[in-house]
């Protein structure tokens, strides 16, 4: 009995930081590290963008299978099992890298990683609310965000720098990435073992009765239909899909551009340098931009800031036009340019996330927000799929000019949307 009570009231410091490190790492590996790895393994930009963009699909359809996670077993069960699957997926990538058809095999394991990671997201975020009391949830929300950002920093920065150093010391690119993924796989086995014993067992985290299934599914269908019955739903959906239309293309080609040789229009940076530029300096600038965006929005609300934030997320794309035109070798200047673009992205993304919250307001707030984030992922997936093909047709300089032109639809749709002038002020201060 004493053991049971102790397990139910485990100190959140023992599991919240590690849980959100485990949530962030596989996402950044699937979305960003995979792009860098495939570029170093000489896969074409067209194939990289097309196939790695498809990996967004689990996050697009996440709202559809979140009821399954909610209905079957416990959130704790899903977290632990998914961490084991993530470890298996990472090991699968490592073991298939030396094979002749490594691209097809590793993609299959990246799909396993993507679905496992998206399922882990659902379970972890639900478990956070079940495992902590209300005052603890408020206290740890900043801590969980910090450790999620640390995971992004570790994945895009330290992990890529490690792979780059291994490339340089061994002289074997396949081996370097194989060892990097084996280390990651071992880390997730440790996460699995650690959380198996450390995660609390809150009484609220219980398996639902089977008799609830029919009612639960009918409720889900009703909430889904109610989202698409919202007033001006076409404008809402278009805004969600178009706000990051340009950024979705840019983000897929940024790392290949930094890595590609100067003969084909790139900047010819090493893998370690890209890990530092995009994964370290870039992530820090992104985080600062997001923090400043939140503070700014809380002062005057979403309606006041949306145009400034729209400009912030799009205007800095011009730095890539400059970098592609000059092909500068000044490493410090490259860092500054990427930091400017990422800071603008972080600042501008605040308005987008606030708008998702705004359109989700109402009786089914949680479910509608999940649908909105699924559309958000679709808005990244579709433009990302064609970005590599466009770049290979027109070259890097013209591609980045195209990215700047691609910002126009976001400005057009923002002119049409309607926002309550008071939204954001009180919401963020309460």
The poorly predicted ranges are: 426-430
- Coarse structural class: mainly alpha
Number of domains: 2
CATH topology group of the largest domain: Growth Hormone, Chain: A
Helix content: over 70%
Specify the CATH homologous superfamily of the largest domain. Answer: MFS general substrate transporter like domains
C-alpha end-to-end distance: 39 Å
Describe this structure in words.
By secondary structure, this protein is an all-alpha fold. The chain folds into 2 domains: 12-205, Up-down Bundle (Growth Hormone, Chain: A), CATH 1.20.1250; 230-430, Growth Hormone, Chain: A. Helix content is 81%, strand content 0%. It is built from 18 helices and no strands. The chain is globular, with a radius of gyration of 22 Å. The chain starts with a helix and ends with a helix. Residues 426-430 have low confidence and may be disordered.
């Amino acid at each position: 009995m004493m053991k049971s009570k102790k397990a139910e009231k485990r100190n959140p410091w023992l599991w919240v930081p590690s849980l959100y490190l485990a949530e962030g790492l596989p996402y950044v590996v699937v979305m960003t590290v995979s792009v860098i790895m495939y570029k170093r393994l000489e896969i074409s930009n067209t194939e990289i963008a097309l196939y790695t963009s498809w990996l967004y699909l689990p996050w697009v359809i996440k709202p559809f299978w979140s009821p399954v996670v909610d209905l079957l077993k416990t959130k704790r069960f899903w977290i632990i099992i998914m961490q084991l699957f993530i470890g298996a997926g990472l090991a699968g990538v490592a073991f298939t890298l030396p094979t002749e058809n490594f691209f097809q095999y590793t993609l299959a394991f990246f799909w396993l990683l993507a679905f496992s990671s998206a399922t882990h997201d659902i379970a972890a975020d639900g478990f956070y609310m079940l495992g902590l009391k209300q005052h603890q949830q408020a206290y740890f929300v900043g801590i969980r965000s910090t450790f999620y950002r640390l995971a992004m920093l570790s994945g895009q920065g330290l992990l890529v720098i490690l792979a780059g150093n291994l490339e340089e010391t061994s002289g074997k690119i396949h081996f370097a990435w194989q060892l990097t993924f084996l280390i990651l796989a071992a880390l997730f086995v440790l996460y699995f073992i650690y959380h198996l014993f450390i995660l609390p067992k809150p009484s609220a985290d219980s398996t639902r009765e089977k008799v609830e299934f029919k009612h639960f599914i009918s409720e889900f269908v009703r909430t889904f239909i109610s989202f698409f019955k919202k007033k001006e739903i076409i404008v809402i959906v278009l805004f969600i899909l178009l706000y990051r239309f340009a950024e979705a293309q840019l983000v897929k080609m940024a790392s290949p551009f930094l890595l590609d040789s100067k003969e084909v229009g790139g900047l010819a940076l090493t893998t370690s340098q890209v890990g530092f530029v995009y994964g370290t300096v870039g992530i820090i600038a992104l985080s600062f931009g997001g923090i400043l965006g939140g503070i700014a929005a809380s002062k005057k609300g979403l309606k006041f800031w949306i145009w400034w934030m729209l400009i912030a997320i799009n205007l800095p794309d011009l730095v890539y036009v400059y970098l592609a035109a000059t092909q500068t070798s000044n490493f410090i200047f490259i860092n500054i340019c990427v930091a400017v673009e990422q800071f603008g992205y972080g600042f501008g993304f605040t308005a987008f996330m606030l708008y998702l919250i705004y359109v989700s307001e109402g009786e089914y707030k949680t479910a509608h927000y999940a649908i909105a984030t699924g559309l958000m992922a679709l808005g990244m997936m579709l433009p990302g799929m064609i970005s590599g093909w466009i770049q290979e047709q027109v070259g890097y300089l013209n591609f980045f000019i195209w990215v700047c032109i691609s910002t126009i639809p976001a400005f057009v749709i923002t002119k049409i949307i309607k926002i309550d002038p008071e939204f954001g002020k009180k919401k963020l201060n309460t």
